[in-house]
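Long-time lurker. I teach an intro course on protein structure, and each term I like to show students one example going from raw sequence to a predicted 3D structure in token notation. This year I'd like something fresh instead of my usual example. Would anyone be willing to generate the tokens for the chain below so I can use it in lecture? Attribution to the forum is fine with me.
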Amino acid sequence: MRMHGWSWMCRWVLVVSLAGVWGCDRPAPVQPGVSLSAEGLGRINQLMEEEVEQGKLAGAVAMVAVEGQVVYEQAVGHRDREAAVDMSADTIFRIASMTKPVTSVAVMILCDEGKVALDDPLSKYIPEFANPKVLTATGGTVAAEREITIRDLLTHTSGLGYHWDAGVGPMYSEAGIGHGVGPAEGLLGEKMAKMGAIPLLFMPGSQFHYSLSVDVLGRVVEVASGQTLVEFMEGRIFKPLGMKDTFFFVPKDKLDRLAVAYAPVEGGGLKRLGNEALTEGLLVYGAAHPYEGERRYYSGGGGLCSTAGDYLRFAQMLANGGMLDGKRILKAETVAMMTTDQVGERWQGGEGFGLGFGVARDTPAAAEMGCVGSYGWGGFWYTTFFVDPAKSIVGVCMGQLHPAGPSKLNGEFKKLVYQAVE
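-- Reply from a regular --
Happy to contribute to a lecture. Here you go:
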């Protein structure tokens, strides 16, 4: 569905007039005076409309803020194509791995308060992770050289894996350990205790490997705070930031705002995903986790649902150095550490990674786009965000699609924002 009947100049004036809701408690930007052209931002809208019309995407919501002011906000297409329900700014999306930065912030709040330390052994919080074993090439195990630390978990250098990893995936599935992109039963504490008995893929700290590390951190938050992960997030992150539509399980009175998830069809078009279980290699997943099942397993690595506006507030807090609307969530020094590359060459051929975020290293590609030092992450269901602290730009783009198929929106969103810089 194309969006007609408004001019870009009118739209620009409207969103800037609403910008006060985002606050401006940020440090002075390194590059003051950055602005984005309406014409450049219009290319985001053009791409969204083209992909909807071509059947590559059912719909999407995109938002961009500069120096704490929203300069672009647009919803295109449908959140429920079959029922002809238009996409809207308050649409709720499954954000999957964009949960990881939120859980990482929760951990660092506890670090700021002295309740958790980065070099603490994981076994301090989950005793079952004491004396870890590491898989060998022959299928046996050897004793790990050291224990997993909180820092290892935040940087994905813990030795843990995901369900699609042949070495450990079947063991995770047999233990009933959730991954955030499908319904899961039981409690986080029960499952993380079982996970402690499963061998690691490599020696802790030796390499970067994307993993269930942040799900484990969710349990660390529970033990260190004495609250469930959702209670801690609601009290220390969601409510202070005004994230009123962010949940692990969407309330019944808001389920009509949850976007339908789709998958590309071979030969073109989309198919609607319902409550069915889907298989991708060793991974079994599904779109029903926001509302189906026991609704009490809080996946810190992939379980949240949110709106583009809510997540923009979270990202703006980070851009502001840990504060939004006068409410401090993290120390500015903590945000700076989190958003600085911590893994170096341990992530071979990848971007950098801080304490919970991907970080654009000083590479030719990043230098050409002008995004060195920016950070962010994406999610399984076709969501993405980034923050550029030097330019004071925050961007969020959300759809509901897996796999991406021929859609280019997620991959092009950040590039299009940078192309709009005047």
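Some talking points for your students: The chain is about 30% helix and 15% strand. The radius of gyration is 21 Å.
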